[in-house]
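Colleagues,

For the teaching module next term, I've prepared a clean inverse folding example: a structure given as tokens, and then the sequence designed for it. I'd like students to try predicting residues themselves before seeing the answer, so please don't circulate the second half yet.
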């Protein structure tokens, strides 16, 4: 039997375009199939791609409500007797998109200088407080490393780094690990996962990553249905249970006791 810690927080990071959002969707679909835990999905990428890929309509992002609040305060239409932070927290509950299988929160972005920090600060708060209400919180992170140096992942249990079968993908993964060490991000486990890999590359990566102390848990293959659904705008949650990418992701999740 698999015993999971209460409230697991899992983040998906990596270089731009390697398939972070796709991997997050495949993980979500497998969690839904397992059907034994409450799930919070956080789209932490300001580009807000995940709701689209899952076909979950989003009314507002955290960035948007942050802006509304700021404008309201400066116009004087919102009283400042209640703290900005508690008002934002209340708003966040309102904008949480609920589906029968999971809840979803999109961080988005807000306008103006310094607002990026505000949204990132809220992300940390969300992870700290909201995630406690769910068995598992799945975060799709933005590409690059800046968010990491802002310590928004400080309470992450499992950091999954996605790489393509290129040297750059691996270098980015190494850099992410370095930054995580530098800023003392408190993660319990870090795993590397390959996406759009062929079998041969998977073997090469297993060897190469072992040498640099990375735990490469395996890879997800190129899946023509994933591309097709992407172009059609069909939710990845509709992938058939026997689709190769979904099955392989399930295998990898079992390997790290996620299902
Ligand atoms: N295993 C796969 N098989 C086929 N196509 C894939 C696979 N993984 C990802 N793709 C395609 O690659 C493209 C990029 O994927 P995705 O948006 O998940 O990457 P990302 O890392 O989240 O990108 P970004 O850095 O912009 O957030 C998409 O068109 C997606 O459909
Ligand atoms: Mg993405």
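(Answer key — instructors only)
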């Amino acid at each position: 039997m698999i015993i999971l810690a209460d409230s697991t927080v899992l983040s998906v990071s990596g270089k731009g375009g390697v398939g972070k959002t796709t991997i997050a969707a495949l993980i979500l679909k497998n969690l839904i199939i397992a059907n034994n835990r409450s799930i919070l999905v956080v789209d932490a990428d300001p580009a807000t791609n995940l709701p689209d890929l899952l076909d979950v309509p989003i009314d507002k992002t955290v960035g948007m409500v942050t802006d509304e609040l700021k404008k309201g305060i400066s116009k004087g239409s919102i009283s400042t007797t209640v703290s900005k932070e508690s008002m934002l927290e209340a708003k966040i509950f309102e904008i949480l998109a609920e589906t029968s299988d999971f809840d979803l929160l999109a961080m988005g972005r807000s306008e103006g200088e310094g607002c990026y920090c505000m949204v990132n600060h809220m992300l940390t708060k969300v992870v700290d407080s909201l995630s406690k209400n769910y068995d598992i919180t799945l975060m799709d992170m933005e590409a690059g490393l800046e968010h990491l140096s802002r310590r928004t992942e400080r309470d992450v249990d499992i950091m999954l780094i996605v790489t393509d079968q290129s040297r750059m993908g691996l270098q980015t993964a190494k850099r992410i690990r370095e930054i995580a060490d530098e800023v003392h991000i408190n993660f319990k486990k870090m795993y590397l996962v390959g996406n759009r890999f062929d079998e041969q590359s998977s073997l090469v990566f297993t060897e190469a990553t072992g040498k640099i102390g990375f735990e490469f848990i395996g890879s997800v293959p190129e899946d023509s249905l994933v591309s097709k659904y992407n172009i059609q705008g069909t939710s990845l949650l509709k992938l058939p249970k026997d689709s190769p990418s979904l099955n392989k992701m399930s295998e990898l999740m079992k390997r790290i006791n996620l299902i």
